[in-house]
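User: Please check token order:
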Amino acid sequence: MDLMLTLVSGIAWTVVYVEAIRVGLRDRTYAMPVAALALNFAWEATYAVLEFREGLSPQGVVNVVWATADVVIVWTYLRFGRAGLPGFVTRPLFAGWSALLFTTGFAVQWLFLAHFGMHDATRYSAFLQNLLMSGLFVAMYAARQGPQGQSLTIGVAKWLGTLAPTLLFGVIEDAPFILGLGILCSLFDLAYIGLLLRGPGGPVRSLPAPSR
């Protein structure tokens, strides 16, 4: 059961990342809220290295796949992200802000590691940032006034990809804190799916290219 839920989570989140790359390139934008992207990339890169230092494992392989996909999503943010910002955000300002954001993502992950140790840090940081991401997807839909750079596939796969480890760690391993966070993630994910199902139809327009 543990292996099955790990694989479900791995496959579902891989679908999220592949679809985020596809939609981001299609709409010339980034398809994951950037604060959550920074934390996710830092989590996956950090634990991919740590998992493989302890030996080959299914989760380690999954982390490498996720981190590799995240590199491409980060590129879509760096390539298209400035287009959605106010005109006073120059290239140097955007670069500096981005560097600070992604550096902070790694710092947060390493602080979790230092305080909780690897076993608890992987779970606590993952579910907390997952809850943040769930809320930010709803906020991104509102900010973009529709499904620009988003898709129902991302919403459903994210929900299933989070539900599987919620069952694994929250129910099977009897961790009430993780279970509570997982339930909250599901509530936001289902709300996001509802927005995508009931939102405005029609073709999605690309964001304008950033001015030089």
Notes: The helical segments are 2-27, 34-53, 58-80, 91-143, 152-172, 176-198. Residues 2-84+91-197 form one domain. The radius of gyration is 17 Å. The chain is about 80% helix and 0% strand.
